[in-house]
Here is the input.
Amino acid sequence: MFAAVYPHDPSAGLVTALLQAGIRPVPVSDASSVADLEPDDGWSVAVIELAEDPAVGLTVARRIHDEGAAPVLICANRTETQLLAEAVCDDFVLTPIDPGELAVRVARLLRGEGAGPDEVISFKELSLNLATYQANVNTDPIDLTYMEYELLRFFVTHPARVWSREQLLSRVWGYDYFGGARTVDVHVRRLRAKLGEERASWITTVRSVGYRFG
Here is the structure.
């Protein structure tokens, strides 16, 4: 299987993740070269990294998608997530890329599924839709910022264990985030407020350590 990868010098992390997924990356310089370099069996997927030039990357993704050359997967870092609202693609992953997640998403695209609306994780009456980034308590939507959603998702998928503020910064915000531990406290306070008085206790403060969910 072959992946058309833009830009022409993809990151080492993306190349490694694709190879681990059993897909050979073929760098392309622009949308027109996708057709010129297409293998005999066709492209399995087109993977667009936005890091080098997000505007151009989005244009390349749109053209490949419109021409039906291959399903399009966009790789964006956490500062570029607002661009995903205007992106024309079939799915996306956030960097740094988790090879396992990329393999699952590529396999889903090859089956023609995309990111389905049934990708929902739940805790009691709370539900989080992983495809649409929507959060609901019962049937009532919760208005969360992107990082509030990411922190809540992490809590829901890692319940019971105590996480230090430093661990949460690393796992949710990323290793390259330079904000202080107070960032975690602020987001926890906002999550508690948005979950409501009855559910604020889901996030427990463990004194001198950090937080536990559930």
Q: What stands out?
A: The mean pLDDT is 85.
